[in-house]
Amino acid sequence: MKFAKVVFWLAGIWGILVITPLYFIFDLIGKKDPPAITHPGFYYGFVGVALAWQIAFLVIAWDPVRLRPMMIMSIVEKFSYGITVTTLVM
What we know:
- The chain is mostly helical.
- The chain has one domain (2-89).
- It has 4 helices and no strands.
- It has helices spanning 2-19, 26-32, 40-62, 68-89.
- Helix 1 packs antiparallel against helix 3 (40-62) and helix 3 packs across helix 4 (68-89).
- It is elongated, with a radius of gyration of 15 Å.
């Protein structure tokens, strides 16, 4: 479980570092990548849920043996975003 601890610590920390700035660049996104966001509730809702999952990764890293069932859901969460972005870019 040492590997799982390291992976989930890294995933949680990296996710927090990447997602937290999204709270502060709402207007910048509309300027740099138009059109502007028209539903800020959806935007901030996504950012909040994504940030909550990063915290869940840190909790899993704290005790991976006890939280093994959460690992499957967290892997789906990480890969679903990557697959979605890849599909939209192509």
